[in-house]
Specification:
single chain, 46% helix, alpha/beta, 5-stranded parallel β-sheet, 10 helices
Length: 333
């Protein structure tokens, strides 16, 4: 089974990993002010930033607001003890990757087991052994930062593998994966799936025009991509560079009538940009020919995702043969 396609990658700018914070942020949750002061003053010697909370509810709110690098949590507190607080911290967005170091006077096996069962990463007892606390905090922050860096790098490499570098649309690999994913989903739901294939009219002539060339051609393709993505922007839509000057748009839960509307909007949006094309036979501006196919995926009809691509490609051929700068449909019924 293929992994779900993460469309958020198309909206996430590339950033370099391995850039740790200059001063890690520690959230200290303890109901005893004297203990908080002692721990804060000790950790500030290590150039850490410290924020404090006097009970579990305040701690949960502070963790949600400030996204600390580590939480130091007392086990015994009024209103909400550390074990319940730790368990609730795990449900916050992203907090399940924030290490929690329990600091408590409880050192029996049952309490230790409760702490780890609630989601604690490590455990130290009171009275505090300061050298041990320093090493535990340092180690847990380093581990947390390494994990975050690894996740960032993994996302970056996955994005590089699935996003077209020129247009920042999905590439062919991501298109195929998303089409297969949506085909299976809509087969279960008995909902329509539509595909639009687009081709820039007379693009070779555009590149061959005096004073234009391939750099101008690249700029043109980026403008075409922007026009397509400006229209195909629903959460489930996927715009991709199919290859060369060809583009594709997957429209989930969309019947043929809706796909035609989207295709015409794309065609009109690009024409409104008025990208000059000196060698076009159909317009003084860059235009698109578009082919559409739509189907309700059904295993009993022996249809495959490739069937939809083939049908859309035939429709695209018909649009070109009919004079270009138009939308054509190929029926699968």
């Amino acid at each position: 089974m293929t992994s779900p396609v993460d469309l958020s990658l198309l909206k996430t700018p590339l950033s370099l990993p391995f850039m740790p914070k200059a001063s890690p942020l520690i959230l200290l949750i303890d109901d005893e002010k004297v203990i908080r002061t002692q721990i804060r003053r000790f950790l500030e010697q290590g150039s850490y930033q410290i924020i404090e909370a006097s009970n579990g509810e305040e701690g949960i709110d502070a963790c949600n607001r400030f996204q600390p690098d580590i939480v130091l949590l007392d086990g015994i507190m009024p209103v909400m003890d550390g074990f319940e607080c730790c368990a609730q911290l795990q449900s916050l967005p992203g907090a399940d990757r924030t290490p929690v170091l329990m600091i408590t006077g409880l050192d029996d096996q049952v309490s230790v087991d409760r702490a780890f069962a609630a989601g604690a990463t490590d455990y130290v007892t009171k009275p505090i052994h300061w050298a041990v606390l320093r090493q535990r905090v340092r180690r847990l922050i380093q581990q947390s930062q390494l994990l975050k860096q690894l996740e960032t790098a993994t996302k970056m490499f996955h994005r590089l593998a699935t996003v077209d570098s020129l247009t920042q649309l999905a590439n062919r690999m991501m298109l195929d994966a998303h089409l297969d994913q949506e085909w299976r989903r809509l087969m279960r739901q008995r909902e329509p799936l539509s595909l639009i294939l687009c081709d820039v009219d007379f693009f070779k002539r555009y590149n061959d025009a005096d004073g234009y060339g391939h750099l101008a051609g690249d700029a043109c393709l980026r403008q075409v991509a922007n026009a397509i993505s400006a229209v195909a922007k629903r959460p489930g839509d996927l715009a991709a560079r199919y290859g060369g000057e060809e583009f594709a748009v997957i429209l989930s839960n969309t019947p043929i009538e809706g796909a035609v509307k989207v295709a015409e909007m794309i065609r009109s949006h690009l024409k409104a940009l008025q990208v000059v094309h000196p060698n076009s036979s159909v317009s003084q501006y860059v235009t698109l020919s578009l082919g559409i196919a739509s189907v309700i995926p059904d295993r009993t009809l022996n249809f495959l995702p490739e069937t939809l691509i083939t049908a859309a490609d035939k429709a695209l051929y018909e649009a070109k043969a009919a004079g270009r700068d138009r939308v054509c449909i190929h029926s699968l019924s």
